[in-house]
Amino acid sequence: MDDFLAEIDDPFHRERTEEIFTWIEQKYPNLKAEIKWNQQMFTDHGTFIIGFSVSKKHLAVAPESITITHVEDDIVKAGYDYTKELIRIPWNNKPVEYSLLEKMIEFNIWDKANCSTFWRK
């Protein structure tokens, strides 16, 4: 995780990203942090749970499209821009919607409990 964070030039972006990753590590100590495809990912028993990438305007959250569909109303309520594959958390001073992250992570842990592949089939 330190290698991923070190690549973030903007101190505010790095701090916010680290805050999110620390929250995940503390709330979900069973998840494994790893970097794949230039993204910070968290996995459970070898299956993808959630991934993050950084751009100039936002932190992109990628939980898989089925999960975005599952929490779409919550994404809209949070005011985040999103696509079929990712959610954009803007680099602003508004608090991160941790309840949304929690809902996505818990859905994926539950839904993929018996998944034996990295991605859903």
TrEMBL record:
Domain YdhG-like: 13-109
Cross-referenced Gene3D superfamilies: 3.90.1150.200
Protein known as: Intracellular iron chaperone frataxin
